[in-house]
Amino acid sequence: MLYFEFFFLLLMLYLGSRFGGIGLGVVSGIGLVIEVFIFRMPVGKAPVNVMLIILAVVTCASVLEAAGGLKYMLQIAEKILRRNPKRITILGPITTYIMTFMLGTGHSVYSIMPIIGDIALKNKIRPERPMAASSVACQLSITSSPLSAAVVYYLTQIIQVQGFEHITLLNIICVTVPATFAGTIALSLYSLHRGKELEDDPVYQARLQDPVWRERILTSESTSLNDELPKVAKHAVYLFILALLTIVTIAMLPEVRTIGEGKPIKMSIIIQMMMLCFAGIILLATKTNTQSVPNGVVFRSGMVAAIAIFGIAWMSDTYFEYAMPSFKAAVIQMVETAPWTFAFALFIVSVVINSQAATAVMLLPVGISLGLSPALLVGLMPATYGYFFIPNYPSDIATIGFDVSGTTKIGKYYFNHSFMAPGLVGVVVACFVGVAVANLIITPA
Questions:
Q1: What is the spatial distance between Cα 51 and Cα 164, in angstroms, rounded to a whole number?
Q2: Which entry of 30, 281, 295, 412 is 20 to 30 Å from 192 by CA?
Q3: Cα dist. 315→6, 312, 366, 425 in Å?
Q4: pTM greater than 0.85 (yes/no)
Q5: Are the C-beta atoms of residues 123 and 117 closer than 8 Å to each other?
Q6: Concatenated DSSP letters of 217-257
Q7: 262 phi and psi angles, rounded to 5 deg
Q8: DSSP readout, 288-344?
Q9: Tens of pLDDT, residues 210-249
Q10: Rounded CA gap, 106 and 187, in Å?
Q11: How many CB atoms are closer than 10 A to CB 305?
């Protein structure tokens, strides 16, 4: 019966994935009701804390976007890329990595993708190389950001393990930053010479023979440098960077978040407080119109992510809490023999549910209950990014649409798409580096 119920869980996730982020959340709600009232499972825990983190971070980033700060960051990034056009395959992924690191969401990079493609095409570089790599890098970076819900959730769970109560947010990002950045460099280097050169690519050459495509390719001009920004845009960015530094500083100094003689305030709560606080400070300092805040891409994508995680995590927690005794007995031998195989579980679940935070919420408690080392669990965190495997994620689909050359694509056999190879290279390298670094940093008291 447990296998049937697990198959049902996967079926609900699959059906939800066919409708995108909100579809995942609401279809998971159907699964939750069936689990409770048909299969008679006890109701699991709703991911309230993770959702509040997402809401707080998205609110602050959305105010930043409405104040023109996101466009200001984009212009700085474009200037750097256009000064070094021949290195676009390396600098493009690094740029999207840094943007995601700062904002805690990979949905902030849509505006830079056409620019990366434009620079590549004008320098006769196959656009697939930097564009696919940049799309993968921006998602790989999520587990490095101190604003990421996945990172904060890992922290809240790891500090509950006996002997690891001293672990801080800084400890975790000191593992995930070098791991994911190493993965980004590796996938960028791999991408330098992938695919045919433009003069030998049949798809690109066929588009040049088509009058409509030829006109579009030869006259395309994607740039943000001509956009006029309000003077307060740079001030908004400086305040947002100050918010990041404040969070990291407080994470390093537990005594700052200890009120009276009680325990230190949890970092998940600190992030929520600081993001809301600095959202207000940016709003007041820049006099931003609040009506424009919900209209940005960051706000819309963030709300979709919150709804998806709400349904997915609640349904998944209900099943695993119910099935844990049998599930634990079934996999404990495999994990004891080769603990690193837990990475496959993270990767496979991520492929299905398209969210690193939701994957963490679903499986991290399972890993902890199996007795896996916190160092291993943190080191394998990049494996929660597996949703490049099926090319249906919004940033990947958008990247394909932005590439007028047609070189960034979904292949004939569906899985031989542009994001598969750089994704596998990035995640594998990041996991190896992550485990090595975590064994040095994530140690018991």
A1: 25
A2: 412
A3: 11, 5, 15, 32
A4: no
A5: no
A6: HHH----STT----TTHHHHHHHHHHHHHHHHHHHH-GGGG
A7: -85, -175
A8: --GGGGGGSHHHHHHHHHHHHHHHHHHHHHHHHHHHHHHHHHHHHHHHHH-GGGHHH
A9: 888 888 887 777 777 778 888 899 999 999 999 989 988 8
A10: 17
A11: 27
Q: Which amino acid is at 442?
A: I
Q: Residue 436 is encoded by which pair of tokens?
A: 């090595």
Which DSSP category does 197 fall into? Answer: -
Cα→Cα distances 198→132, 219, 365, Å:
16, 17, 48
Separation of alpha carbons 410 and 386, rounded Å: 17
Judged on CB neighbours under 10 Å (0-12, 13-18, 19+), 195 is middle
* Owner of token pair 């930097």: 130
Q: At 315, list the tokens.
A: 């349904």
Here the tokens at position 371 are: 């007795």
Say if CB 368 and CB 83 are below 8 A apart.
Answer: no
**Burial class of residue 105 (count of CB atoms within 10 Å of its CB; 0-12, 13-18, 19+):** buried
Sort residue 155 into left (φ over 0), alpha (ψ -120 to 50) or beta: alpha
Query: pLDDT by residue (tens digit) across 376-413?
Result: 999 999 999 998 887 767 778 778 888 888 898 887 77
